[in-house]
Hints:
Number of domains of chain B: 3
InterPro entries (chain A): Bact_Polyamine_Transport, MetI-like, MetI-like_sf
Number of helices of chain B: 9
CATH superfamily of the domain at 55-231 in chain A: MetI-like
GO cellular component, one term (chain A): plasma membrane
Largest sheet of chain B: 6 strands, mixed
Family (chain A): Belongs to the binding-protein-dependent transport system permease family. CysTW subfamily.
CATH class of the largest domain in chain B: Alpha Beta
Number of helices of chain A: 11
Strand order of the largest sheet of chain B: 6-7-8-3-9-10
CATH class of the domain at 55-231 in chain A: Mainly Alpha
CATH topology of the largest domain in chain B: Rossmann fold
Oligomer: heterodimer
CATH superfamily of the largest domain in chain B: P-loop containing nucleotide triphosphate hydrolases
Structural class of chain B: alpha+beta
CATH architecture of the largest domain in chain B: 3-Layer(aba) Sandwich
Strand content of chain A: under 5%
Structural class of chain A: mainly alpha
CATH architecture of the domain at 55-231 in chain A: Orthogonal Bundle
Subcellular location (chain A): Cell membrane
Order of helices and strands of chain A: HHHHHHHHHHH
Largest sheet of chain A: none
Mean pLDDT of chain B: 90
Helix content of chain A: over 70%
Organism (chain A): Periweissella fabalis
CATH topology of the domain at 55-231 in chain A: MetI-like fold
Amino acid sequence: MVEKQSRWANLYLIIIFIVLYLPIFYLIFYSFNAGEYMQNFSGFSLKHYGELFADNRMLQIVLNTFVVALLSSLLATIIGTFGALGIYGVKNPLMKNVLLSLNNILLVSPDVIIGASFLIFFTLLGLGLGFGSVLMSHIAFSIPIVVLMVLPKLNEMSTTLVDAAQDLGANSWQVLTRVILPYLAPGIYAGFFMAFTYSLDDFAVTFFVTGNGFSTLAVEIYSRARQGVSLEINALSALMFIISLLLVTGYFFINQYNLKRKKQYKKGRNG
Amino acid sequence: MAQTIIEFKNVVKSYEETQVLKGVDLTIEAGKFYTLLGPSGSGKTTILRLIAGFSSATSGDIIFDGQRINDVPANKRRVNTVFQNYALFPNMNVFENVAFGMTLKGVSKGKIKEKVTSMLGMVQLAGYEDRSIDELSGGQQQRVAIARALANDPEILLLDEPLSALDYKLRKDMQYELRELQQRLGITFIFVTHDQEEALAMSDWIFVMNEGKILQNGTPVDIYDEPINHFVANFIGESNIIEGVMREDYLVSFAGKEFENVDAGMRPNERVEVVLRPEDLDLTTPENGKLVVTIDAQSFRGDYYEISAHDDDNNEWRIQATNPSIINTRQGLTFDPEDIHIMRFDESEDDFDARLENYED
């Protein structure tokens, strides 16, 4: 009975993964099409990859996207970490809840509304739209993500750790840099990568605040898709999928390696 | 008399409405092993935190080496703490943990290495420098925490229930080790615990606390033999506490009979409480007994039998005997005059000490 159940569960899992991955593989498959459309596979060819690498505008946009993602997630991580420390330090529970709710509202509110409000905000201030406005809005929507990743780690930290550091002679700055931040590191890294991916694939907010001369991948693909997706986009998607795949496998192996090393250490100690 | 190192003068600590310390006075002399003993919530950890500087007194003076230190921050005090959960830094290995205080002070690398090696040797963890914290057992983490605190050469080492997370055997071993360490280093130890056995075994001097007050302080023997009131008698060891009347000096009546004893200095016919320790009571034949009791139950405790019984006045008695007894039989109960300890109701510690002073030679 149990075995039967687990077989059904496996089947269910397999179907779900097929449904999730099939469109991506379909896309990648046609990136190798010798023809111009996602119909009638007429033969294997790398010509769309060639087109992609010859398309300077596209490469510039890829670069833009990564620069914005890297810068915005970096700055958001710094601001968000201190924000989390600030919220953690608030003694009044009501005040704390208000701050947390304000943080969470930004997370759940639709991107369209955030994008529109940024547009209004930047226009009111008379700031030009372009790299600056995109960067600032990406920082803004990434901060709550970082706060959300760092705060649980802070709450989990025993307060006696801070007491212990002070007890051993650390001033506030030393407590922060030598004890608290290293402890929070996993949360900070997680926040950084979350912010990075959010920024990479953000469409709605960017769409509102991007100007004439500046574009990111999501916006560019959208505008090209309106004239029918060229297979160059497929080639780009395939490349990005492979890069993400490599990153995930790399992460998996590093984790595996660390776990194994730790286990061996323990075995050596007990044996 | 040794030099006073810490003094509390009428120290009060309140959190919003609740007072957790209600005007505490205490004096701590350099080089001794002190224990703050009390149930949870008695304020013993609060005293420790006030000495360490993690919280500040609502009123009163805390004096360290003749200077008021109420406003000196924790990182400037020559006091180090061993925490209940050890509070080792998980992002550092054993060496870095022990070296932490010295690194902050800018001690040279060579000196740090030398000191860490000697500290780890002292707590029997030589060669553990490169281990990470989560690879250590609870007992080993405990030792690292002690080494880390002592590496700063504190004047006082504060220990906040450091043994409570260890198993029984390890706890016993650590008691001996801590006691031995304190005597070797000559540093003042202030140890917080709710375990009376631990307090009796390790301390030079015990402060018994309850509800934010120090009820009694003295050597372990004094506190065990002469508890000041019902709470202390019950908290330190097991006791039979019976209401009685002090007829005159050296004569007390309880359980319907009069007994010779060794206490004096009370009003004639004053109502008192009488304490008899279970290990001071012996069972005998009913004819030879000072009291006659009926055995209710007994349980085997390894080195003794714990027997519960009741007398004809329906007072409960607990007796520790080396030989088993028979349930529902009547037995005689004997004890010596010195085994009877008298406690007055609401006697302050000063009056108690003065009275003892008066009639004890």
